[in-house]
Amino acid sequence: MYRIGEFSKIGKVTVKTLRYYDEVGLLKPDRVDEKTGYRVYSTKQLLQLHNIQSLRQVGLPISETMLVLSGFDRQFVLEQHRREVMAEMDDLKRKLSRINYLLSGVEVENMNYQATIKEIPSCTVYSKIMTVPNYDAYFELIPAIGQKLVEKYPDLKCATPAYCFIAYLDEEYKEEDINVEFCEAVTEAREDFDDIVFKEIPAVTVVSVMHKGPYSELRDAYAYAFDWVEKNGYQIADSPRENYIDGIWNKEDEADWLTELQIPINKK
């Protein structure tokens, strides 16, 4: 029999850890001296400790280690843990790829742009699919859509924070006859009317790139965003979105317009 100090030396584990294992029920001492309160461990418990250490050293949490020791399917627990570790490794590889991308000098060459990954929550929107003759047509078409909605549903409120975007539906870049879907988030759905449809947009993971300046220069932001997606182990999952934050409606100088490119992505 060993007192806790001796047992810790033989088992190569701290006394603090043994006391913690006792508290959580992972490894109780063989007995506790009634007079002194000293914890006493047996030789048999060295094997139990060794088993615990083997599981803990592969990163198995206390709760799952206790499951295995209580007789739960060891193979099942370890297979599940292996999947979690592999997912963590994939995540670390992507982080390493992003670090290498930053170190490559691409960020320096494109001082105006940086990429971040965001989770865009689900939201209710009203939408209109249309073909626009050119990008300048947005200045007339989009306000007209908003006015049409206000006339139909004057009490309908936009979501807070505001979120309106255009999704491009063509498979290639076009400067004329562009197929797009305009969406604006609102607090609730209403009955569809004319060519305006209310629907729920599912949550999505995107690469976000901020562009400050006129829309005519958005092409550079797109080139940067697509390059980032390709070189960081992702693939495009859906139509790119342009989220209009500041524009002609609140900024006189187009140099102050702020547009967020949102590229829906999946891991390769």
Describe this entry's structure for a reader.
This protein has 268 residues and is α+β, with helices and mostly antiparallel strands. It has 3 domains: 2-69, Multidrug-efflux Transporter Regulator, Chain: A, Domain 2 (Orthogonal Bundle); 74-109; 115-267, Regulatory factor, effector binding domain (Multidrug-efflux Transporter 1 Regulator Bmrr, Chain A). The chain has 8 helices and 12 strands. The chain has helices at 4-11, 15-24, 44-56, 62-69, 74-103, 106-109, 138-152, 218-231, and strands spanning 2-3, 31-32, 39-41, 115-120, 123-132, 164-168, 178-185, 197-201, 204-212, 234-236, 241-246, 258-267. Strands 4, 5, 6, 7, 8, 9, 10, 11 and 12 form a 9-stranded antiparallel β-sheet that branches. Strand 2 and strand 3 (39-41) form a beta hairpin. The relative contact order is 0.11. The model has no long low-confidence stretch (mean pLDDT 87).
